[in-house]
Here is the input.
Amino acid sequence: MTSQPLDQDDEDMLVPHSELMDGPQPIEGPQPMEVPLPLPIEGPQPLGGPQPMEVAAQAENDSTVENQAADEPQTSRFTWMIENFTRLNLKKLYSDVFTVGGYKWRVLIFPKGNNVDHLSMYLDVADSGTLPYGWSRYAQFSLAVVNQHHSKYTVKKDTQHQFHARESDWGFTSFMALSDLYDPGRGFIMNDTVVIEADVAVRKVVDYWTYDSKKETGYVGLKNQGATCYMNSLLQTLYHIPYFRKAVYHMPTTENDMPSGSIPLALQSLFYKLQYNDTSVATKELTKSFGWDTYDSFMQHDVQELNRVLSEKLEDKMKGTVVEGTIQKLFEGHHMNYIECINVDFKSTRKESFYDLQLDVKGCRDIYASFDKYVEVERLEGDNKYHAEEHGLQDAKKGVLFIDFPPVLQLQLKRFEYDFMRDTMVKINDRYEFPLELDLDREGGKYLSPDADRSVRNLYTLHSVLVHSGGVHGGHYYAFIRPTLSDQWFKFDDERVTKEDMKRALEEQYGGEEELPQTNPGFNNAPFKFTKYSNAYMLVYIRESDREKIICDVDEKDIAEHLRIRLKKEQEAKEDKRRYKAQAHLYTIIKVARDEDLLEQIGKDIYFDLVDHDKVRSFRIQKQTPFILFKDEVAKEFGIPVQFQRFWIWAKRQNHTYRPNRPLTPQEEAQSVGQLREVSNKTHNAELKLFLEIELGPDLRPFPPPDKTKEDILLFFKLYNPEKEELRYVGRLFVKSSGKPIEILSKLNEMAGFGPDEEIELYEEVKFEPCVMCEGLDKKSSFRSSQIEDGDIICFQKYLQTQNEEQYRYPHVPSFLEYVKNRQIVHFRPLERPKEDDFCLELSKAHTYDDVVERVARRLGLDDPSKIRLTSHNCYSQQPKPHPIKYRGVEHLTDMLIHYNQISDILYYEVLDIPLPELQCLKTLKVAFHHATKDEVVIHNIRLPKQSTVGDVLNELKTKAIKSCKCRIGAKVELSHPDAELRLLEVFYHKIYKIFPLIEKIENINDQYWTLRAEEAIKILHLNTCMQSHENNLVFVPQIPEEEKNLGPDDRLIHVYHFTKETAQNQMQQVQNFGEPFFLIIHDGETLSDVKLRVQKKLQVPDEEFSKWKFAFLSLGRPEYLQDTDIVSSRFQRRDVYGAWEQYLGLEHSDTTPKRAFAANQNRHTYEKPVKIYN
Here is the structure.
């Protein structure tokens, strides 16, 4: 993520990084109203690439040096008085050299402009020509032309830049108009003298790659796994609450626990490393203990939600241990919800606990304003009276007061909220102030309930500020923390920790707008502002009276001994690994394969070639070691005397096979290990691969290997059993190149355990990449004529009669090796349960689409394979791909499993009620049918040809109604009468957005997000059925009530929606709709009182509850409340009522429907998915 600039007060040149913007973006460049011309300056430096004298949005790139300052900036002002200015005859002019921060600078001007009609002015590195290669320095600076009449009209411009050899000067090509500069009445030239001022602040730039957080700050950071900055900022905050860290250390764990499977142990390990490591710490063990996979680590979540989920999980893990209740002791507070009647003695209270408080940002200037709003009293009166049990409806006061606050107060700032008008999440970047000290006892304890313990002093000091930089769809998290509550703040930004001052931790995280200084003061040009997208998102305060207890000492004695031992071993192993790598150039790794390895691996781990070298014994030998001494090591390891050892060099052949090629010569064995590796290994890696040939006598004792001539060939043999489908290694033989396979048949029968006269078939295993080549070997041809050489592999099996072949799946070696090459175990999961394996099948990658679905159908006991529909697996999201595989849409199983460059082993299946080819020609709509008079909704899946119309859908529903009437089936369409007419509506977020014309094609109707609702329809001639469609709805079919079918000329058909007002969101009390919307007839001259009776009857609401409802006319979300005597039809003058969804009759009452989490549409931009900790 791009960081914030160094000092935002001097940030007139900067705009936020474009990727983090959320809305209109200011113009980039040196001045909002200027576009610098791409003209090079003249000067001694070669000017290739970007123009060094243009600012042109460079600020956003340079902002990456944020917080790379190890020390406070060194600042100085240089004043340059240029006499005889109007008589200057130079194209450019340099000032005297001045020094700031130990660096030499000068100002460069073009008195007549750098090919523009403006004064051009730059800051220049004075000694750039003599600086060493790779030099770099960073400065924030302002350049000014002083107005000598009135200083307030001085023209001043600020910027910042990373100076280096290619960009040794930086500034403004169009600083100010020459006409203004040379105008005697403007005051910039007096006595033919111009005064220029340069304010320069130089910071020591930290090289990110060499920066040592531990050395510079005493703390280390956390590595980012992909998008885990939100988690890192929270973990650092929790770690730096020592009481919490100590409690984590005291959670019971055992030496047998594994961090990846134990959240307590993983957190203990993480905290230990943060406390004692010298470098940044990885979080993979912790996320694995959460049950997260790689995809979760690349999914950014909400830090507030993670905080709650992690706290709940730790609270659960601490139960029954010595630290049970720690989460409550630290973070739990209590408040009291109350409703108190004004005119009678009745009060209802409910005590609730909290671990954090959600504070409004919108409409609040600071924390105190948010607390004022939190405890704000709401009056329940008029139509909103409170039902006070035996006292009936009463005027009352409703509010919240705090019983107690926790020692560690976590404040979640509501920077994100849902905008119902725009139907999207938005980020609130308003300025919001928070103090270093927070006094919650202020104004006589206005936030406290009567039951609160007033002896506890609720004075808090700020411990940490968690910051979100970016917009609603993404961004970056980091934290400002002062671990000991001293004046020194630290910024924890993933791996990097830097020292910070209080201004950066507090004021610069308030948010709001940044105003750029005016370009030409006094000329009535509006100031240019931009929104600051980095702001505080979560605050942690610690109560002063609990300070000593919470900021306690935590040392090794608080850490379980087994944990200390385990982590020290890990550290030692890590150090050994580092040392191992550092010394790797001094050693050679020798991997020695033996017959025992071939016997163990062939037919189990491998089938092709001879051995997996990663699974054989390896030796790490110093390169200078003579090879003969290495043979001594082998003798000790394997118990084979040196004189009985013969080593073969492996070679990679052109066909990508890897075989023993030749024995080492005596001359080679006389060399050092390092020399031998260089001779044998052209790829120059550190490994030497050898095959150890040992000859054993009948008594299994070794004897010296036989002399090998050029005529001798070493062959390796594998035996195949088609009945068991088994391939195994049976040994090796030396043969003469002039000899013939027929001469060794008896020996091969002996090796296989066959009778001496068993007829066998021989095949040469030639290669297996990219395809298998295994060819029959002519028994009567010589090995030489068959091109057999050292290291070749011969596979053999019993001879099969043709009539016997059919009883085996793979009767011969070539077919078996082909099968092994393409064998693929596939895990099949039902699409509706995508996390659960249902069954596995062993398939071939070469299987066709028809082969695969046939095998699946057979496994499921299904007669018709065409009713199987498969969906591929997304390897990154670990979810099904959004679109299923079309019928014969892929050729082979491999095509089903591949996802970009990865091969999956998972497929999802569905069993359809009709064949897939037939289904693909149909369109399926999910339609919710609403009865005209009954409060019931039945969901129907309507399946019709894609070219069908809405009229066809409604006819299908009517057909279901007839069938259900005759058959009396359960899920039915019940009409008010047989001739009832239906209409199809599109509903989204409890509003009706469209009535579908009967002739509209269903192919393009999207029911994945919108609700399609069917109901009995209204005959009304003036209806406009071409309503504007809103994105993402569901369709529903309501029955048209009888009263709507005979409308008078002055009757109106209006939209009626339920709503509440969300007072907690902001002071404007946004309207939020809920429930089922409907249409209602409004007769001419009808009062609200009459309408209420019909609404109550339609919705069947009890009198007591209905008496609390309010009725309002709403236009564009603004309610105008109606009285019983108001004529309702006068508000609804529009006749195209089906298009008037933005005007409706609103029924305001509480939403009593069961609440469920807001499920944003998958195709819409959503901020994140819910955080889950699975273990």
